[in-house]
Amino acid sequence: MSEDTIRLVTIGRILRRRWRLLAALAVVGALVGYGASVLFPPRYTASASVLLPGQWEERELLTQVDIATSSAVVDRAAAKLGRGDAGGDLRERVSAKAADGNIIRISGTADTPRGAQRLADRMAGEFIAFAARITGGDDTGPEAATGPEALREKVTETNRRISDLADAADPGRTVESVQARTSLEKLRTALEEAMKKLEEADPASDKAGMVVMGPAVRPTGEAPPTRVQLIAGGALLFFLLAVVGHLTAARMNRRPRTEAEIAAALGSTLIGTVDVPAEPGARRPEGQGLLARTRRFLGLGTRWDMPAPQASGDEAGRRIRYRRVCARLRERLPAPRRLLVVVPEDDETARRAAGRLVTEAESGPSAGGGDPLLRVVEVPASQPVVPDRDTESGALVVLSPGSRTPEELAGIAEACADGGHEVVGVVLADAVRVRPARDAGRPAPAEGAAPALAAPGHGTGGSG
């Protein structure tokens, strides 16, 4: 699987075989999200809309948005709300954005709905006051109120004095008087044009009068992320991390799965492949502690990345496979010999296959006339220790494909060599699914019906 492309069937296999573990991790993630919601209290957000009359370009609106959240406006709002020097903290709780129709929406976030409403309204009011002060449209000062009107009065008085000077000049009698009247008229025209341009350039003439479009609506729900969102996000995050972790472990898996790879790692040859009916509910007598029960409940004791057990034939077909293994051992051994059957202690399928192999060797038709005498020895895969050679003259390794790493297989071979045992062969044990009986009244096939059982296309195939 380390070289295969990850497909949907792989995801489905994870969900089907490790759903309890994934559910447990999702619950843990939900608890972490709940803890985060306790550490970070809920927040509420309210928004107030400010209308900017007149024609505004996009860059001008963006400038007003920056002004609405500037330190000058925020500090004034903090002072009015009685926060003192908390303008820096308040700046992180306010925001503004330009909406359609020359509208700036100012939002405030607080711990309570009422606090959020007050903050949004105060920010809108301070923004309007500050913008009016910048554009000169602030009517709070007496100078600002009388400045434009006084300028208009000065221009009117100047025009009247120009008219008086023009009338006082001797009209048409001398060249100097004509030139004086012409200069006075030019001065009058220049003053009128300057006053007209001043009125047109006055920003308060068409862009003043910002108004708040009603008070901010008091929020009825929490601002995201809410407690429910944190709980759901934590559960989803832990669930996805668990799935990604399974996929990463599968991609990094280097356990040999083929018969040739396993035999090469043990430095021996393959004797055959046998079928073992899958029994998910079977329990070994050891490992009944709390940790072992938890591992079994979560499904950690079984490999999720192994293919689903394939359908097997009947009992007679499975028995023929065990007899073939005994026959090949008899052919490889010139005389009746005693062999150790080495099985990894955590490989339940191999342990059951070894027990069945011993039974067939003792009760087969060649028992006592050539079949070797087998004795099962279970060894830990991490630090295997095989008994020293006594009456046995070799070792037969039985294991499940894809269950051991190359290092573990090499360790088992070295342990056999240290005990003085030659590894005469390898037997692979495949977990299979027993087919239900097709017809209860149909007689079982005869024991000698080998051609039908040996037909090609068997689910577990191989060299059984």
Automatic annotation (TrEMBL):
Keywords: Cell membrane, Membrane, Transmembrane, Transmembrane helix. Signal peptide: none annotated. It is a multi-pass membrane protein. The chain crosses the membrane at residues 21-40, 228-249. Residues 442-456 have a biased composition (Low complexity). It is found in: Cell membrane. This is Polysaccharide biosynthesis protein. Its main location: membrane. InterPro entries: Bact_polysacc_biosynth/exp, LPS_length_determ_N. Coiled coil: none annotated. Residues 439-464 are annotated as: Disordered. Residues 4-67 form the Polysaccharide chain length determinant N-terminal domain. It holds the Pfam family Wzz. Belongs to the CpsC/CapA family.
